[in-house]
Design brief:
The structure holds two protein chains of two kinds.
Chain A lengths: L1 E8 L13 H13 L3 E6 L7 E5 L5 E5 L8 E9 L3 H10 L8 E6 L7
Chain B lengths: L2 H23 L2 H22 L5 H19 L1 H17 L12 H8 L6 H11 L5 H7 L4 H17 L12 H20 L10 H17 L4 H14 L2 H4 L19 H15 L6 H14 L8 H14 L3 H15 L1 H10 L4 H4 L2 H13 L3 H14 L3 H15 L2
Helix pairs in contact in B: 1-2, 1-3, 1-5, 2-3, 3-4, 6-8, 6-9, 7-8, 9-10, 9-11, 10-11, 11-13, 11-14, 13-14, 14-15, 15-16, 16-17, 17-19, 19-20, 20-21
Classes of the chains: A alpha+beta, B mainly alpha.
InterPro entries (chain B): DUF6596 (IPR046531), RNA_pol_sigma70_r2 (IPR007627), RNA_pol_sigma70_r4_t2 (IPR013249), RNA_pol_sigma_r2 (IPR013325), RNA_pol_sigma_r3/r4-like (IPR013324), WH-like_DNA-bd_sf (IPR036388)
GO biological process, one term (chain B): DNA-templated transcription initiation
GO molecular function, one term (chain B): DNA binding
């Protein structure tokens, strides 16, 4: 079963890194989860200020806006899609992920399964 | 076998049947449907053919056949079944006498899984393990049956779609997961002990369901001392049920209870369990609370209660669980050991706790201490606050009576 792990950063330090987790923590985690052979896809996202929103109205008019910039402290910073037997295993990986520490959180969401797909 | 006996068998067997089917097919909905169908079939066949020598095994075989039939008809499940069937056949140990394995422990952990909404865990546990129907569960939680049905459907859908597993946590996960299961059972009990609303102070059926669930869990995990502690706590508190309300359902406080009406067999059973819960390592919070209940139950009169012992146990408990509710109960015990003045100081130091702001026992305890210190105006204000917060009708009647007595002075 596939699960999406959405990594929300908590408090950020002056250089934009999450407080209390070093790049080595991320590298160690990425190595562990990759070697476990469960990763389907993973990316870390560029800084929030680079984000752009697109909406298309009913008349086909396209609107492009800078942002949006979340007002909450939690910001989506990256994701993993993993393929594991059940939710408990997915939760274990989420708990190991450095993004779940230092005020951050990892939201675990099952990927929908369609019959015949 | 009479119909009542048959129904008692089904009530007991249903949880085991459901657990075994849920684990085998990974789908609680399917398990419930085929378990119900198997029971219906039994109700038709047994009166004619006689009760089979192994009723549980018969129900399991019948339900499993129905599940396989249904899955074969259902294209969506067909591929899944092939995998599950292979896994299940590989995992299934053969038992002497055709008995099927007891998978209820798996089901306990699934129903109390932290990924489910806290209010759904108790509902699901009562539905799946205590064998209550959805309308019965709805009555237990005082919500409309339709609301409860939706909640149960939602919880079961999450188990299926997020694939919450049917498994017993490993030894090193157990300390993290077992308290959640105990919390579910204890919350059913506390709702039965002091109903949060409605015409009755106590709801004995709920308290008894909680005890029944704890007995099952204790049977499945006999070495887990906190399970024994929880069962002991509930037995030792439930033993006072008949003395806790008067003839018209009114509140009778511990100090006024007729102790000859306590259930002494239950006290004996609870005390034996407390001993095992406290032996063999540091005590857990349920074991300590059970010990406190045991000290109360052992006192022949309220006046002879061993308050220093109770305060000492509350000191141990506070170190394990810093919740303000425990601090409140500790202060109430201090009132009897050191007098109301000391206790009031402690209570006032808790006034900033958000969890106590709308908790009527806090206002009531303050009112009682102020009353004993003859600070009448403040006592009246505290009773009035308790009155606006109290849940069940008998509790409100009790507070009103205290208010009337005070205002008449």
């Amino acid at each position: 079963m596939k699960y999406l792990l959405l990594i929300n950063a908590g408090e950020l330090d002056l250089t934009g890194g999450a407080v209390g987790c070093e790049p080595e923590d991320w590298m160690r985690f990425d190595k562990e989860i990759t070697e476990a052979g469960v990763v389907v896809a993973s990316e870390s996202l560029a800084d929030l200020v680079t984000q752009t929103r697109v909406q298309v109205a009913n008349d086909g008019q396209r609107t492009v806006t800078d942002g949006p910039f979340a007002e909450t402290r939690e910001v989506l910073g990256g994701f993993y899609v993993i393929d594991v037997p059940d939710l408990d295993v997915a939760l274990d990986w989420a708990a190991k992920c450095p993004g779940s520490r230092a005020g951050g959180s990892v939201v675990v969401r099952p990927v929908a399964e369609f019959p015949g797909a | 076998m009479t119909m009542d006996q048959v129904e008692a068998v089904f009530r007991e067997e249903r949880g085991r049947l459901l657990a075994a089917l849920a684990r085998r097919f990974g789908d609680l909905d399917l398990a419930e449907e085929v378990a119900a169908e198997a029971i219906e079939t039994a109700l038709v066949r047994w009166p004619v053919d006689g009760v089979p020598p192994n009723p549980g095994g018969w129900l399991m075989t019948t339900a499993r056949r129905k599940a396989v039939d249904r899955l074969r008809r259902d294209q969506v499940y067909a591929a899944k079944l092939a995998i599950l069937q292979v896994d299940a056949d590989r995992a299934e140990p053969t038992r002497p006498g055709g008995e099927f394995p007891d998978d209820r422990l798996e089901l306990f952990f699934t129903c109390a899984h932290p990924a489910l909404a806290p209010e759904d865990r108790g509902a699901l546990t009562l539905r799946c393990l205590a064998g209550l129907s959805t309308p019965e569960v709805a009555r237990a939680f005082l919500v409309p049956a339709a609301t409860m049905a939706k909640r149960i459907v939602r919880a079961k859908a999450k188990i299926r779609d997020a694939r919450i597993p049917f498994r017993v946590p490993s030894k090193d996960e157990l300390p993290e997961r077992l308290p959640g299961v105990l919390q579910v059972i204890y919350s059913v009990f506390t709702e039965g002990y002091a109903a949060s609303s409605g015409p009755y102070l106590q709801r004995l059926d709920l308290a008894e369901e909680a005890i029944r669930l704890a007995r099952i869990l204790h049977g499945l995990l006999p070495a887990e001392r906190e399970v024994a502690g929880l069962l002991a706590l509930m037995l030792l508190v439930h033993a006072r049920r008949d003395a806790r309300t008067g003839p018209d359902g009114q509140v009778v406080l511990l100090e006024d209870q007729d102790r000859s009406r306590w259930d002494h067999d239950q006290i004996t059973e609870g005390r034996a369990l407390v001993v095992s819960a406290l032996t063999g390592g540091p005590a857990g919070p349920y074991a300590v609370q059970a010990a406190i209940a045991a000290v109360h139950d052992e006192a022949p009169t309220f006046a002879s209660t061993d308050w220093p012992q109770i305060v000492a146990l509350y000191d141990v408990l506070s170190a394990l669980d810093g919740s303000p509710v425990i601090a409140l109960n500790r202060a109430a015990a201090i009132a009897f050991r050191d007098g109301p003045e000391a206790a009031l100081t402690l209570l006032d130091s808790l006034s900033g706790e958000p969890r106590l702001r709308d908790y009527h026992p806090y206002a009531l305890a303050r009112a009682d201490l102020l009353d004993r210190l003859e600070r009448r105006t403040e006592a009246i204000a505290a009773y009035e606050q308790a009155l606006t917060l109290a849940g069940s009708d008998p509790e409100r009647v009790h507070i009103r009576a205290r208010l009337t007595a005070l205002k008449d002075i």
